[in-house]
Task: structure prediction
Amino acid sequence: MSATADPDFDPASGQARETARISPMAEGWAIEGMLTLRSVSAVLPDLNRISGNQVALDLAGLTRLDTAGAFALHQVQARIAQAGGQLDLRNVTPDHTALLERVAASIPQPPVVTVQRKSLTDLLEILGRAVAGAGVFLAEICAMLGIFIARLVRMIRHPHEFRMTALVHHADEVGWRAVPIVMLMSFLIGVVLAFQGAVQLRQFGAEIFVVDLIAISILRELGILLTAIIVAGRTASSYTAAIGSMKMREEIDAMRTLAIDPATVLFVPRILALLITLPILGLIANVMGLFGGAMMAWIELGISPGMFLTRLLEDTSIDHVIVGFVKAPVFAIIIGVIGCHAGMQVGGNAESLGRQTSAAVVRAIFAVIVADALFSVFFAMMEI
Amino acid sequence: MAPEVIIKLRDIRNAFGKDVVHDGLDLDVYRGEVLGVVGGSGTGKSVLLRCIAGLRPPQAGSIEIFGQDALNCPENQRRAIDQRMGVMFQDGALFSSLTVRENVEVPMRTLQGLDANLRRDLADLKIAMSGLPYIAGDKYPSELSGGMRKRAGLARALALDPEIVFLDEPTAGLDPIGASAFDELINGLSQTLGLTVFLVTHDLDTLHATCDRIAVLAEKRVLYTGTMADMLEIDHPWVHEYFHGPRARAATETLERTA
Result:
């Protein structure tokens, strides 16, 4: 490309570069070139300099005008008219006249908005609405739980309505497919606990207590809690996404018009599947956690698996296992109800689906941890 | 003087696997006209639109737009061609995370050196020209009705003052009042802005009200082109059924009564 390339030619696009020039003349100004979206910003300062009472703007040299250019000309006209003057456009072609008129006719009139500062009462109102919203949310969750229990009772009385295939499908989806991740996670937790415990307990020569440490913490708390958190992440989101996309495409409304109860078809098999599989997953997590801990105790502290087992059976009360498993069904219902409820909150667009899916996971994990804390307080008061 | 050919399609072939949609399709679009493309379901009207708009290259054939080869040209030349065309998709295809005004500003952001205030004002102007109220600019696409979304989609298609606008089923799903208002909008814009409009539609009223010329897609190619009056003369069975069916008669009668 030569250095003396035509400045009006843009080699990138192979097109004439769009430029406009404004120059003063005898009784006003003249504009020539192309006044378009691409060139108008460059001449805005020049256009803003046009002023006076009776000004003429000659458009004879204008080869192209688009809505952006017409808008800019209209702005100049409006500004001069506001100052009490008048801008005469001269030598306008019929095409340009039509465009200028069209643009002038469609200039939007923004409504006058008065900005109000937020007062203390507004903030109070926001707080009140948030509290009321939380109350409504809790009520809705309770309603969802109530529907689930009512439909479950109905299904016990009318077993032919029960959807066995759906239950098996969901149990496979949330239970069986979650086994590998749950196993790996709890194995690693056992390993970490044994390792950290060993380092601390060795200082007192109390290595053997690492068995109690692992057994109590895994069986009582971590096995079930971490399984529930993983399942909340996997399953609450998938329930919300599945039910929410059906809600979005009006499939749930279609079910209602066909006299099919969405709760029976959608909620009961899903929550029931969680209710069945979460304790099983918790058991797997317990076993794998103890296994991981025993491995680490053997490698790090020289506690043989036989000794680990003896110590485990002699010194660890069965109460710890029971305390752990009592929580599992509660966590299962919390996760299932929150997932299904969030699915039903999805509106008409994909955005709300995404929002509800992530909200379901956050709420489910939060609720599981809160429930676990309440259980801890309860068991402490019961002295179990 | 013969009108300038702005889009020139020759020997286009489109196939999905073994399913051939277009074979040896030729079509000319003239500058400043409103061309209506009709055809039965599955004859590839939208595929043809996507081909010209550069969304789906054809398996064979040539496409010339503004006299430039649009298929085998450098990327920046193709981008320059794209900036001179606007597409309105069936449901607007607006970006759901942006307001309508921001949607209209998106194509303008690609231009360097465009003043931000001017850009905002121009977006408001385009929204108003598409027949939307000013407050619609602050709303998100999910808050609009189907007809308003189509208008917002048109405003975005017009953002760069294109020379060609592609409209995919502009009146589908609109009530008759909204549909005829949209027809008038297309007419008004094509006249004052000098637009060339490539319109895919099933709506006979729209064909009557807006189109200078009609192209009939059948038997894998453009079977006939001509004015509405020409179409009524053709005795190809499908074309005859299309333009003489009960709905077509109703549309013709309405037009004659209002004329």
Summary: The two ends of chain A are 87 Å apart (CA to CA). The first strand of chain A starts at residue 9 and ends at 10.
